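$ ./design --mode recover --in tokens.txt
reading tokens...
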């Protein structure tokens, strides 16, 4: 059933120059880039939920570009040039966001990034290869940092490598700052507005009170990441659920920074004197390839056990909150940013790296529209 619109609504409210589907970090960054480049254009974001529905407000707040073993896996899967370009996009995207909003506004902390790897494997040549690939924008990116193990409180076996320039953001403050920024530019954000169909220049919005409403737009940008297949069925995107918990404050906690484990499938950071731990998708890929926000008890228990492996059986903590977020993946980690036709552009599949990539993706979309 379609809503009956008034004369005023038809004449002023349901036509826009550019419509963006998805009000997460990527959608907001796309809106920012478009209004910066085309200030006279009207830009409207349609977000299905009161708060962004996906991963943008449910992530771990990592401002990272790729650990040593992640990069080695990417090089093996898609070659050195593509792996290097992906790290560059993440690095540049974060620079764009930090410059646009300020570190204070997004709670950015240059806390440092670390990775725990198998000490039985020699990574010397791998480190040289990775550092050579990214030397023009992150010199001396990765280095052996076993001296940090005791400072971090890690007792698990393995070597620790550090990643230069990695940091943390406060996800909630980042979203508030992005929303405030685009609103000041004149972007309209319509929450509770689920786009259920896109055809030609038309978007059909589901309104639970009035029935469906058709909007028209000269350009439509799909930024709903893991949920893109609901509008573009042949898009090569698979959802991936991330399990997360955060502890109560831990007395005398010495761990500070980010820690990557098992090619980034596990990720740990401090939030003040709390620990936020997430991941484990690799132990149950089939169950976690879903858009349902349910907790996976097996993975949650694995996360708790792994925390005791990292810090020792005597390490005491209590879980305060648990949640999940829905990310988007594919055959490799490269985002999909492309024009589908004269009207529709798609910008999805962030591979769990939306915080870092969003600023860069926005600029890419603006170039495509130009």
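writing sequence...
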């Amino acid at each position: 059933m379609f809503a009956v619109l008034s004369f005023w609504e038809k004449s002023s409210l349901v036509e826009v120059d550019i419509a963006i589907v998805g009000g997460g970090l990527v959608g907001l960054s796309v809106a920012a880039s478009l209004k910066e480049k085309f200030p006279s254009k009207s830009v409207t974001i349609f977000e299905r939920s009161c708060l962004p529905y996906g991963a943008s407000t449910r992530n771990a707040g990592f401002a990272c570009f790729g650990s040593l073993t992640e990069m080695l896996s990417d090089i093996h899967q898609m070659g050195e040039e593509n792996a290097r370009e992906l790290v560059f996009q993440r690095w540049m995207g974060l620079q764009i966001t930090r410059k646009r909003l300020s570190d204070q506004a997004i709670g950015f902390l240059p806390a440092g990034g670390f990775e725990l790897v198998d000490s039985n494997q020699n990574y010397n040549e791998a480190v040289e290869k990775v550092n050579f690939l990214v030397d023009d924008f992150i010199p001396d990116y990765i280095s052996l940092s076993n001296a940090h193990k005791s400072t971090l409180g890690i007792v698990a076996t393995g070597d620790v490598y550090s990643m230069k320039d990695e940091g943390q953001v406060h996800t909630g403050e980042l979203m508030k700052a992005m929303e405030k920024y685009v609103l000041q530019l004149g972007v309209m954000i319509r929450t509770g507005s689920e786009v259920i169909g896109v055809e030609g220049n038309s978007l059909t919005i589901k309104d639970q009170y009035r029935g469906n409403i058709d909007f028209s737009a000269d350009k439509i940008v799909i930024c709903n990441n893991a949920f893109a297949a609901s509008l573009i069925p042949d898009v090569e995107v698979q959802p991936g659920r991330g399990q997360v918990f955060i502890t109560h404050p831990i007395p005398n906690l010495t761990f500070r920074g980010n820690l990557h484990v098992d090619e980034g499938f596990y990720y740990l950071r401090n939030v003040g004197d709390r620990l936020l731990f997430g991941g484990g998708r690799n132990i149950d890929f089939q169950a976690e390839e879903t858009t349902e926000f349910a907790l996976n008890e097996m993975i949650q228990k694995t996360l708790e056990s792994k925390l005791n492996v990292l810090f020792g059986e005597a390490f005491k903590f209590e879980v305060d909150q648990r949640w999940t977020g829905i990310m988007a993946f594919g055959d490799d980690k490269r985002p999909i940013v492309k024009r589908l036709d004269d009207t529709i552009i798609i910008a999805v599949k962030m591979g769990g790296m939306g915080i870092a990539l969003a600023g860069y993706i926005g600029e890419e979309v603006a170039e495509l529209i130009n």
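exit 0
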